[in-house]
Structures are given as C-alpha cells and as structure tokens.
Amino acid sequence: MDSAIGLSTMIAIGPDNFRHLLNGFHEMDIHFRTAPFERNLPVLLGLLAIYNNNFLGAQSVAVLPYEQYLKRFPAYLQQLTMESNGKHVTLDGTAVEYQTGPIYWGEPGTNGQHSFYQLIHQGTRLIPCDFIAFGQPLNPIGRHHDILLANVFAQAEALAFGKTTQEVEADGTPPWLASHRTFDGNRPSNMIVLERLTPAALGKLVALYEHSVFTQGAIWQIDSFDQWGVELGKVLAQQIIPELECETEPKLGHDSSTNALIRRYRLMVDQGIEMGRGGVFLSLTEEQYVKLKR
Known about the structure:
This protein is 54% helix and 7% strand.
C-alpha cells in the first residue's frame, strides 16, 4: 500500500489523504525504531503473538474491528501475516521445530458477536483476539457509539474474567443449567483504541501489524519477505491451462485425481458448447464420461 502499487489507492482517496496515510506509516516506523522494547507497540504485539502461539498453543488470531469501514482489514492482514510468516524452514534452510504463522481471520465486531463469538468464549479452542475501536465515530448517531464501545469493552472483560458457576447460580440460574452459562475466562485479547479512523490512523494500524510480523519472523529466524509457497501452484497452473484449452484430447501426466478433474472439466465444457448454451455445464459420473467418449 505504501509502495508504487499504492498509486491506485492515491487515485481513489486523493493525494492529500494519501500523504496522511504515509505520515501514519512513518510515525509508526519511527516509533518502532526508537521506542524502548517495554513501550514498543509492534514489539509487544509480536511478542504476545509468539507467546500465544508457541507457549499457549493458539493456532489462530481473531482481528475484530468495531468499525464497519474496516470490514476488509482482517482480510488484508491475512495476506500480510500468513504470506509473510507461513514458513517451515529457518533462514539457513533447516526445518523449524516450532509453530510459525498463526491463522489470522475476523469480521467487524457486532457481526461477529452474533456468529462466531460463541466459539471464542466457550469453545474448546484458545483464540486470542485483537479488538480495534475508535473514540470518535465517523457518523455519529445519538448514543449508538457509546453502545458500540460498551460492547467491545464488555467482550474483552468477559474473555479475561469469564463467569464462575457460583456467580451464575447467584443470578438465579438453576444448578442443572449453570454449567452451560459458565465462562472459563482467562482468554487473551488485545485492545487497540485510536482517536478516530483517519487515513493517518489507518497507516499506523497497517504499519503496526507489519512491524509485528517482522518481529515474529526475526524471533522465529525465518524470512518474512520471501513467498515461495505460492510459486508451485502457479507453475502447475501454467501446465494445466493449455490442457484445458486445446481442441484435441491432451496427453495428461498428472496424478489420477488431477487427470480426472481435467477430463471432467473438458467434458462439461464440450457438453455446454454442444447444447449451444456456452455456460451450461453438466456434472457426469466417470461411467457416463466413458460411455460418452465412446
């Protein structure tokens, strides 16, 4: 976003807003370079991620922005974090003996509260959460923002402290139902609160996670900047494309599963063309395929 590829972003938001975005990046860069470790946000975020992953056994991180304009931010972080640190060898090429690159995922907060928060609170998996909130709304409507912030603060409190069986029963819950309404608590979360979602604030957020990813990679002794993991699929795809497009039956040299998929796809396309509908594909069994080819 802050490289040459960011030209499209600058065109979309205008040069002034883009400069503010870059200023946000720069401020976080300076903070990461100069702040002592005990107050260095990217370092602390990276160390917490390593502790949760390698010592507590957490395999994923939920990023939960309480701001609808950041609905795609978790998806952006998936590319940043998993493409950078999804590595199985160290810088010198030896196999790592520990977990690297947790799975990042998430949705805007209140949407998630009514879908997957149940698993985070009472499920059997440990899922650390990064909550992101803002002190000032972009579209103030009555007391809605106070309610929104109350929700995000309450979720963090519930994850941290939960609710014991004794507390549940003290609220009047019958003993036979108490275990279903008990929350273990002691589930880790980070609370990131910025003043307002501006281009500069977004730049700080992105740079925060970028430097956190670098911190994790440095400690894991892996290269956060190569992307060989996406190469093999691209190379194989270049071999398959002409096999899908050639007019005569190609000689296939893949595994049996891939060969069957290629044949099935070609037959579906052929059947669609023969029916004169172009996009109409038929799903056939292997026996039907053999009979048709005869």
